[in-house]
Amino acid sequence: MTRNLIDTLGHLGSCTRPRIRMGLRYAFAAFVSLAIVQGAFAAQAPQFVNPGPGPTSSSPLYVGASNGSLPKVPVVSGKMFDRVTQIWIENTDFNVANTSSTFRNLAEQGILLEQYYALTHPSEPNYVAAIGGDFFGMADDALYNIPANPSARKLRAMIVRCDDREMILRDPSELGASITSWSWVMMTGLSRSVDLLEAKNISWASYQENMPTVGYLGFNFTQPNYLNISAPPYTYYVRKHNPHVVFNSVTSIPSRLAQIRNFNDFAADVNASTIPQWNFVTPNLVNDAHDTDIDFASDWLDYWLVPLLSNPAFNDNKTLIILTFDETDTYTVNNRIYTLLLGGVIPANLRGTSDTTYYTHYSTLSTVEANWGLGSLGRGDTNKTMSNVFEFVANVTGYRNLDVRGADIPLTNITGTIPGPLNPDLYIPFAAPNANATGAGGGPVFLGPGLNISVTPESLPKPVNLTEARQSVPASGYGNITGPGVPAPTGSGSTGNANGGVEVRAVVGAVLGAVIGVIAVLA
User: Fold this and answer.
1) What InterPro entries is this protein classified in (predicted)?
2) Is 291 among the residues known to form the active site?
3) Fewer beta carbons under 10 A from the terminal one: N or C of the chain?
4) Within its chain, how far is the Cα of 151 from the centroid?
């Protein structure tokens, strides 16, 4: 019945027509207003302020108190490294990052990956893909809750207009029919890198700057503005840059949620020498260049990362540090981003060198899998073209990379055109991973409990446009998740559409698109 409904909506959606709803004068007014706001922001560009005495010291500016250090656990030796830490900066083109003296100085200590690409736009889908092996069609920074357990959500009654016809679709149970299974069925047992790590007892954590509490699940967090104490409160933390909390398989398990920690926790863990073996680090919205620029982010790196490079509790001779960006700032160029490999594990003869192998965010997954001989997710991490292992690691593990160059490099600057369970315009349900795939680690594909491997991408119906049907994807909102920062249920459906960290570029593009569209119609 579910498939019949999807097929019906797909047919109806094919005959709907986009309509321009913004008049020229309103589009122009919006554009002018936005320009004024941007000009005001530029005129008041903030200056970097040290968030604390140093990266290993607790700071009251972070609001969230330390929850103590993580326990010491046995170290699982890898073929090349025993610890890996990813640090993600925001929205910067390769050539812009290359103008920073901080990045150039760091490059002298590591390997510059000259052909490393993000996967899509905007931010959140890149973060999700880096730990989940897929962005599931996501094309925005909205609130999602990727399921871990069997779940179904019934569609509300809809009125669908198709040209001059109007059709009403209702839940058959409301009409007294015997069929009560009309629903969007969601996949169970969706995996992510955490599953692969825990299967080999490899410790992990995510450190989020300015997150108020361990395991915070709120859409964002606003606090006193430490850059300007006379200014209004500022949103420093956003959920969209914290990929683990997008997965229900993390947020529904207290022991996993406890691994989502703030920077005061990070200081405690470094001082106790309990930094896990796999780490994901997200600076706040000013320190990651999202709300500022590459110079501001460089100042933060000088404050935070540079001293840590000489701290053996964070960086020893078996530590790999990946310093990268989520995406480019310019959407009209392919998504090439500046990425450095740092840390004590980098061989002396490779420091200050460049690697021209083609990599993407999926390469961080495949490299970890190859290093520890892990299984795979059976998604982008097993896509041979897009998941090359970092060459200096591949040379040790014996993995053979593909030579992808020139016109063979995929275009990854597109957005919104990939069908998926998180794309309301091209919705399809979740599918099982490729259970027969072979990843760089050589292990089996992780198949979560209850996973129905018969639900393959090939078995799914055609995509449907839920937006035109005035519906949201089933995985939007918090669902049944409760925890720190989750609003109390209101009974009005999904929650979470805050404005913290909104992509100004998307607003500019929408306004310009509306202006151009109206001009085209008037012409």
Assistant:
1) Alkaline_phosphatase_core_sf (IPR017850), Phosphoesterase (IPR007312)
2) yes
3) C
4) 23
